[in-house]
């Protein structure tokens, strides 16, 4: 190998190393699938709703999201289910314990992953309240590139290569919270589960106006 050989090889390696930096740092390539959180209807599972008072600045700062929605769906007899939907290209902000941000101040613990009734393809992360918040039940689901995510850490390993060199794609977080669900409430028939399922169906029923990379 001539003296220029190692030099060329080093230049190629440096060039390859710069690809992720160019894609995500300077060019900021993003794949827009044309879906939006705000398309989910104001009436789900037969329940009317009203907007919450969450601030756009908080969502941008905390989740790096400009595409989001939060509404309070009124339960028969009183109480409501809060439904927060956010889309972000900063995936970790959504999949890494979203309850610590979205449900800040609520004392919740993880209670496993279960499928939604009638939607076995949707793994739902279940959170239940502790102590004096034992009546609380929160559910969330994560959607990325048409697939629902069960284990965020396995997902991170599986997509690391594509995320490193390809355009960024948005993840969608669906987070539903019912503070008056009742201790030990089953997901089957729970209002919060019906609202979450209806939100996912509403989101997936969109006809995207844009789909580009």
Per-chain topology:
Layout: H1 4-27, E1 49-51, H2 56-63, E2 67-74, E3 80-88, H3 91-95, H4 99-102, E4 108-116, E5 119-129, E6 137-144, E7 147-149, H5 152-165, E8 171-178, H6 191-204
Antiparallel strand pairs: 1-2, 2-3, 3-8, 4-5, 5-6, 6-7, 6-8
Cα-atom radius of gyration: 20 Å
CATH class of the largest domain: Alpha Beta
What is the architecture of the largest domain at the second tier of CATH?
3-Layer(aba) Sandwich
Count of discrete alpha- or pi-helical segments spanning 4 or more residues: 6
What's the number of structural domains? 2
What is the gist of this entry?
This protein has helices at 4-27, 56-63, 91-95, 99-102, 152-165, 191-204, and strands spanning 49-51, 67-74, 80-88, 108-116, 119-129, 137-144, 147-149, 171-178.
Please name the defining characteristics of this protein.
Protein Transport Mog1p, Chain A, eight-stranded antiparallel sheet, about 210 residues, globular
Please describe what this structure looks like.
- The chain has 213 residues and is an alpha+beta fold.
- The protein has two domains: 1-29, no CATH class; 31-204, 3-Layer(aba) Sandwich (Protein Transport Mog1p, Chain A).
- Helices cover 32% and strands 28% of the residues.
- The protein is built from six helices and eight strands.
- It has helices at 4-27, 56-63, 91-95, 99-102, 152-165, 191-204; strands at residues 49-51, 67-74, 80-88, 108-116, 119-129, 137-144, 147-149, 171-178.
- Strands 1, 2, 3, 4, 5, 6, 7 and 8 form an eight-stranded antiparallel beta sheet that branches.
